[in-house]
Amino acid sequence: MRLTAILFLAQRVSAAVLALCVAVHLATILYAVRGGLTATEVLARTRGNAAFFAFYALFVVAVAVHAPVGLRNIAREWTPWRGRSLDVALALFAAVLLALGLRAAYAVYAA
What whole-number distance in Å separates Cα of residue 79 and Cα of residue 30? Predict the structure, then answer.
C-alpha cells in the first residue's frame, strides 16, 4: 500500500509539471510557426541554450514518471498481471523513456 500511495503522489505531481510543460511547449511552437522560423533557425536558437535543455529535461523526467505509473494502473485494472514483474517491466519502460527523451533533448541542445 505504501508503494501505491507514493506512485499516486508521483503521478499527480508529474501531471502538474506536464500541464505546465505542454502549455509552454505548444506556445513555443505557435510562436515559432507564426514567426515564420524554419527548422534551421529553431535549431540555431536552441543550440547551446541551457534553459532549453533544462526545460525539456524536466519535461522528459515528468513523462518518464507519469506514463509508466498510468500504464501500471491500467495493467492492474484490465489484466491479471501483478507483482514484481509488472513493476520491473514498467521501471524498465520508464528508464527507456528517460534515456531516449534525454538523448533527444541533448541532441537538439548540442546540434
Answer: 40
CATH class in words for 2-110: mainly alpha
C-alpha 93/C-alpha 109 separation (Å) is: 24
Distance of alpha carbon 62 from alpha carbon 65, whole angstroms: 5
Report the alpha-carbon distance of residue 103 to residue 5 in Å, rounded: 31
Q: What is the separation of C-alpha 56 from the centre of its chain, rounded to a whole number of angstroms?
A: 8
The answer to whether 10 and 69 are in contact (CB under 8 A) is yes
pTM: 0.90
pLDDT in tens, 66-76: 999 999 999 99
Q: How far apart are CA 88 and CA 78, in angstroms?
A: 18
Torsion of CA 26, 31, 36, 39, to 10 degrees: -50
Q: Is 82 helix (H, G, I), strand (E, B) or coil?
A: coil
User: How far is it, in rounded angstroms, from Cα 62 to Cα 16?
Assistant: 9
Grid cell in block for residue 84: 514484481
